[in-house]
Design brief:
The complex is a heterodimer of chains A (about 160) and B (about 190). Chain A is mainly α. Chain A has three domains: about 5-60, no CATH class; about 65-95; about 110-160, no CATH class. Chain A is about 55% helix and about 0% strand. Chain A is elongated, with a radius of gyration of 49 Å. Chain B folds into two domains: about 1-95, RNA polymerase sigma factor, region 2, helix turn helix motif (Rna Polymerase Sigma Factor, Chain: A), CATH 1.10.1740; about 120-188, Arc Repressor Mutant, subunit A (Orthogonal Bundle). Helix content of chain B is about 75%, strand content about 0%. Chain B is globular. In chain B, α4 (about 70-95) crosses α8 (about 150-155) and α5 (about 100-110) packs antiparallel against α6 (about 120-130). Classes of the chains: A mainly alpha (about 160), B mainly alpha (about 190). Chains A and B meet through α2, β2 and α3 of A and α2, α3, α6 and α9 of B.
Chain lengths: ~160, ~190
């Protein structure tokens, strides 16, 4: 192969200042002692051909993009479109599902009596109909009811006389 | 060969009529120095050719928007540096290849007389350089072989001057150690 060594490379270490040279000599005496050479060979006519080769490659690349770009655009757009379509389909179906609020039924407690209007209570007790606390939305035993009346300092005798 | 200024080269390139001519001049002006760096980085002449071609192709596409706040040479050098590192990283990422294999492949070039004309000590030095990690190798080549200023290397690599000094210091110590060890192993 007809080849030559690299030219025009700067004489290495020539630009170094004295301090850097001294430091290199101190730090790496063996390395410092290796003569400055450019041992790599350049293939024959390499630099004569390079600019033509590069320009040919640039022309080649500039020809390709239109078809190539379209393929890329298509390759990216198709899955995106499919995902959007799927999302629309899914949301369309799920939109028909009614939001039903689930109300948990719980047994009334003694605290619920606070919500019972006393007027309603007396009216109910005064009626002929069999009245249970359930009528008022409260399910209590007799003892619980007595406890409540006691807690409210209700005079049972007075209550009975009113009835 | 007549040296052209950056302004002249850019003006020629930006004119549609003289674009190819301008780029041709730019390549001829810078190709040898860039090749020197790339060749030391990748060692194999075919790889060096690929890296340099990619460098100039990228330069072609980037020249239109090149901001003239840096020198053309530094900008080209930066592309060549990045391309070399990318090329070496790609080689190391190949599934069945490990770091040692890549280093051995790179060293193989030195055994072929059509690619390398150095004597035994030059060969030892190059082998040691090839054992350095890619970024350390780049810094070592720019500083030791090309005598670039740290500020210039900083502009090319995007690394601070302080970090470059530390990197070079470490690289020099490693090279010295490996060259000495190599000499002890196979005395000439």
């Amino acid at each position: 192969m007809d080849s030559s060594n690299l030219r025009n490379t700067p004489d290495f270490r020539s630009g170094d200042d004295a301090l850097e040279r001294e430091e290199l000599q101190r730090l790496a005496p063996t390395l410092f002692g290796i003569p400055a050479e450019e041992p790599f060979k350049v293939p024959a006519h390499f630099f004569d051909r390079l600019s033509h080769e590069v320009q040919a490659m640039v022309v080649e690349q500039e020809k390709k993009p239109s078809a190539f770009t379209w393929l890329w655009r298509l390759a990216i757009a198709t899955p995106v479109l499919l995902v959007l379509l799927g999302a629309w389909w899914f949301l369309r179906d799920s939109g028909t599902v009614k939001n039903v609020a689930v109300v948990e039924e719980t047994s009334p407690t003694i605290e619920d009596l606070d919500d019972v209007d006393e007027v309603d209570l007396f009216a109910a007790l005064a009626s002929d109909e069999a009245v249970t606390m359930n009528t008022l939305g409260v399910d209590l035993t007799d003892d619980e009811l007595l406890d409540y009346l006691e807690q409210e300092h209700t005079d049972l005798n007075e209550l009975i006389s009113e009835l | 060969m007549t040296e052209h200024t950056d302004k002249e080269l850019l003006a020629l390139f930006r004119d549609e009529q003289s674009r190819n001519y301008g780029f041709n001049l730019l390549m001829r002006q810078h190709q040898q120095r860039l090749y020197g760096f790339v060749r030391r980085m990748v060692t194999d002449p075919d790889d060096a050719k690929d890296v340099l071609q990619n460098t100039f192709i990228k330069a072609w596409h980037g020249l239109e928007t090149f901001r003239e706040d840096s020198q053309l040479y530094s900008w080209l050098y930066r592309i060549a540096h990045n391309e070399s590192i990318n090329h070496l990283n790609k080689k190391r990422r190949m599934p069945i290849v490990n770091n040692d294999t890549v280093t051995e492949q790179l060293c193989g070039t030195l055994d072929k007389s059509e690619h390398f004309s150095g004597d035994a000590i030059q060969q030892k030095l190059q082998r040691a350089v090839m054992r350095l990690p890619n970024k350390q190798r780049a810094v070592f080549i720019m500083k030791y072989f090309e005598a670039k200023k740290y500020t210039e290397i900083s502009a090319i690599t995007g690394t601070t001057v302080g970090a470059l000094k530390a990197t070079y210091h470490i690289a020099v110590k490693k090279i010295e150690e490996w060259v000495v060890a190599d000499q002890t192993k196979t005395p000439d």
